[in-house]
Design brief:
Length: 191
């Protein structure tokens, strides 16, 4: 994984039961015997959602299974250079309902595989290109009427020292098709 953690073990297959009635035979899964790194002790397992042949999504799709619910959907983009990633068509970021001034094309997936935005369930933090991060940081600083403090000793770029909770702006990722996802404040600021 990107943070240096790893798992090793054996590969097997079994019938997967979903709820009380749905069953899908021959689903491959791994049994980890050596799981090293942050995050492995917090859960009883890990579900692979990548585009690789052994991910749960790929296996269910190849067997004609589907899961549905009341969720909104966005199209996923496939890269010919890195076909195992789930690229998502982000069109912009808004802060308190106002678009952040991010240069057009910043989130576009390029033909050489660079750019774009991926969903990675194994990565703890969102990583933005400097072209998106700098204007977002500036917009957050403008919205929070406090003097920034030096947070470099704890690895934080934008930090405030205050005795109380700070009123934070709403931060929303905007996706193709008019789908918006507002991040909970504790997903982009530690208080």
């Amino acid at each position: 994984y990107g943070d240096g953690s790893f798992t090793s073990g054996v590969l097997s297959s079994e019938t997967l039961s979903i709820g009380s009635g749905s069953k899908v035979a021959g689903i491959g899964f791994g049994c980890g015997h050596d799981n090293e790194g942050q995050g492995f002790s917090q859960g009883g397992g890990l579900v692979g959602l990548g585009r690789g042949a052994l991910s749960l999504i790929s296996q269910l799709g190849s067997k004609g299974a589907s899961l549905s619910g009341g969720a909104k959907s966005i199209p996923l983009i496939k890269s010919s250079v890195i076909p195992t990633f789930w690229y998502i068509p982000i069109t912009g970021i808004t802060l308190d309902g106002k678009p952040v001034d991010i240069p057009a094309g910043t989130f576009d997936l390029q033909s050489d595989g660079s750019g774009g935005m991926i969903i990675d369930s194994g990565t703890t933090v969102t990583i933005l290109d400097e072209a998106a991060y700098s204007p977002l940081k500036d917009a957050i600083q403008s919205a929070i009427d406090l003097t920034p403090a030096d947070g470099s000793s704890v690895g934080l770029d934008l930090c405030y020292q205050t005795s109380g909770k700070v009123s934070l702006p709403s931060l929303t990722f905007n996706f193709k098709g008019g789908v918006d996802y507002e991040l909970p404040a504790d997903n982009f600021f530690i208080q």
